[in-house]
TrEMBL record:
Gene3D superfamilies: NAD(P)-binding Rossmann-like Domain (3.40.50.720). PROSITE patterns: ADH_SHORT. This is NAD(P)-dependent dehydrogenase (Short-subunit alcohol dehydrogenase family). Keywords: Oxidoreductase. It comes from the Bacteria.
């Protein structure tokens, strides 16, 4: 896919942060329609207006992606009103952290919300659109934004890590299912970045080989990977060191290197994030 000119692009969490950047790129490349989903109606309206002023054709929908029935209902509206998306970017996500798991509220409300938005929502959205993307028979892309936390266990973010491990397993498995079924016009890209400099990760620390990432740079790399249909994008490359260590080092040695020498296990100690974020 050389670009998205003349194509329909749907972005969850599209009103702010990374989603807003993806939407801007889509308009700049001449997308036929940019479809924004977001929970924040005020930000959604503002971003949609800005994109229209750039010349984009924008359709905005207030959607809580953790609500399966709502996702299904609004997806049906999109299919009927706008058409089948050629690109779907599952970008919406939340971050919770800085407490040991046993210190989190016993009702686990935040834990359940994190799993619904980070793990289940990509499944809801994918199930709502992927059959139509397959049947349409045109070149299409699905991007699932996970996290490097989906590869590496880390103190003070156990639920977030669990949600992103699930997202990676789901996304890459569906990629293989498409290949096994001989469907080559729809390709899935799983994205696993380290901490990005958005309000979502306010207070998170960098570590040697793992610098905090710039949103514009990450979006540009994700966009390039999406167009190529690249199966997996891991940012930065230093994240892959941990994956290599899993295969060659015993667990105590791996913990020692990641925790004490590299310092990954202390990166969430000062995390604050932003309240009720949905990016």
């Amino acid at each position: 896919m050389k670009n998205v000119a003349g194509k329909r692009v749907l972005i969850t969490g599209g009103a702010m942060g990374m989603g807003r950047i993806y939407a801007r790129i889509a308009v700049e490349e001449g997308a036929a329609a940019v479809i924004l989903w977001d929970l924040d109606e005020g930000a959604l309206e503002k971003t949609a207006q800005e994109l229209r002023q750039m010349g984009g054709t924008v359709h905005d929908y207030a959607v809580d992606v953790s609500d399966k029935e709502l996702v299904t209902s609004v997806a049906e509206q999109v299919l009927a009103q706008v058409g089948v998306p050629h690109v779907v970017i599952n970008n919406a996500g939340i971050v919770r952290g800085n407490d040991y798991f046993w210190e989190t509220p016993a009702d686990l409300v935040d834990a359940e919300l994190t799993m619904r938005i980070n793990s289940l929502a990509p499944m809801y959205v994918t199930r709502a659109f992927l059959p139509a993307m397959i049947d349409q028979g045109e070149e299409a892309r699905l991007v699932n934004v996970a996290s490097a936390a989906g590869f590496t266990a880390n103190p003070r973010m156990s639920v977030y890590a669990a949600s992103k491990w699930a997202a990676i397993g789901f996304s890459d498995s569906v990629r293989l299912e498409l290949e096994q079924a001989g469907i080559d016009h729809v390709r899935i890209t799983t994205v696993a970045p380290y901490y990005i400099k958005t309000g979502m990760f306010e207070g998170a620390r960098s570590a040697p080989l793992l610098p905090l990432l710039e949103p514009e740079d990450v979006c540009a790399k994700v966009w390039k990977a999406m167009r190529k249909g690249k199966p997996m994008l891991v940012l930065p490359k230093g994240v892959l060191l941990g994956e290599t260590m899993k295969g060659i080092l015993p667990l105590p040695a791996r913990d020692l290197i990641a925790g004490r020498l590299i310092g990954v296990h202390r990166t969430m100690e000062d995390f604050t994030g932003r309240p009720a974020q949905d990016d």
